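Hi,

I'm pasting everything inline rather than attaching a file, because the server keeps stripping attachments. The sequence lines come first, and each chain or strand is labelled.
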Amino acid sequence: MVLAVDAGPNPWFSPSWVVDNWSLIMPLLAQHVRLTVVSVLIGAVIAFPLALLARRSRYLAGPVLGFSTLIYTIPSLAMFAFIAPITGLSETTVAIGLILYSLVILVRNFLVGLQAVPADAVEAARGMGYGPGRLLWRVELPLALPSIIAGIRIATVSTVALVTVGVIVGQGGLGQIIIVNGFGANYYRPPIVFGTLASVLLALIADQLLALVERVLTPWTRTGVSA
Amino acid sequence: MNAFEGALAYLNDPLNWSRPRGIVYLAGQHLQIAGLALLFGVLIAVPVAMVLGHAGKGGGVTVGLANVSRAVPTLAILAIFAVTPIGFTIWAPVIALTIFAIPPILANTYVGFREVDGDVVEAARAMGMSERQVVLRAELPLAVPLMMTGIRTAAVQVVATATLAALLGGGTLGSIIRTGFARQDTGVVVAGALLVAGLAVLTEVVLATVSWLVTPGQKQLPFTRRRGDRPVDEPATGLGERSDVDASPVPVRVGR
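And the predicted assembly:
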């Protein structure tokens, strides 16, 4: 049996395909980055008050964490399918789904970070006359920062990978290249492999950038014993 | 709520369940692909994790593997296997899914073995147990809760990812969502989403029950975890995190 796959030249990687299709790749790469940044940022903005709320009482923590676990259990394709009837085949549909997923990761990490703030530090700050606002901003937030950024890193990396599923509504960033220009174009391999590598690389670069941000924001963790 | 009514109408039609390539057939394919991938994942990851965990070696690799796998889009791996010579068989998605089932099982089982109290192992040796017995009769039972967390995470993962196989010609429940979009019928889209989400939640519940049943010692109802217990699928560290956070449970949830 001769499959269409074997008929023409179909290499696993083709630099010339990348060069020839640069004008196709760039907007999709931009969409990929845009969707990731927007989703994680909005996710973080929503997650922070939720984490503060969940920290307040365990009666709130239960529902918040339980509901977020339920969200995380729903497969991405189904999530986009639930949202699409409301917001249509738009980038918004993908962004809403990705915000929900990143929310789950971020709330948990923010909560872990806030709970891990040493009671002594809080006590000392109160003793020095810090009010709740200043306590949060000047003491608790900096001490929770490593955990907060760890959460943002995980959320970012997962989101980069998840954007590809947005292809179901035609807004999948590099996923468009993999599915539409590769699989859908007579199983042509170069776009599939390129899209995969580009997506993984994007995730790793974003992760390293965030690691750098953490280093810059938490200089005190580097004093003393050198690692 | 037009889409929702459409979904109910679709789900209420018995023909949609029983016809060729209907819901029953697709759910069967879905579970077959996911089940095989989970089985292979367990068969590969558990023994490797047992050996590594017992020896206390390879911790960085197992945890690193789990973290890196998060960066790889499942859809991309499915697409790559779909354009290999086995692309038109169910083995393409099964192998792709197995790759994503291994890291969570491996990392959680490894941590489970590492967290066994050293005194217990010593006591087991002092009682004259062979290394084999130490692994199977002292360490394994104590590692079961974490191992089951890994298997549960992997199960939910493969069920979710099997949905995506529909975008690559596979006949799974995701096909219904795909058909709905192709026909621009939001009722069918939402019906597919309900089925897929339902199956994922069902998997989570079934596996939570199984892990409760196989966990030795005092039985604690699933979903009523005490406050102190921290499930391992909870993200705690980042990708390529330095291991100075060491024993904190490994976050192992891969992007779906």
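The first helix of chain A runs from residue 4 to 7.

If the labels don't parse on your end, tell me and I'll reformat.
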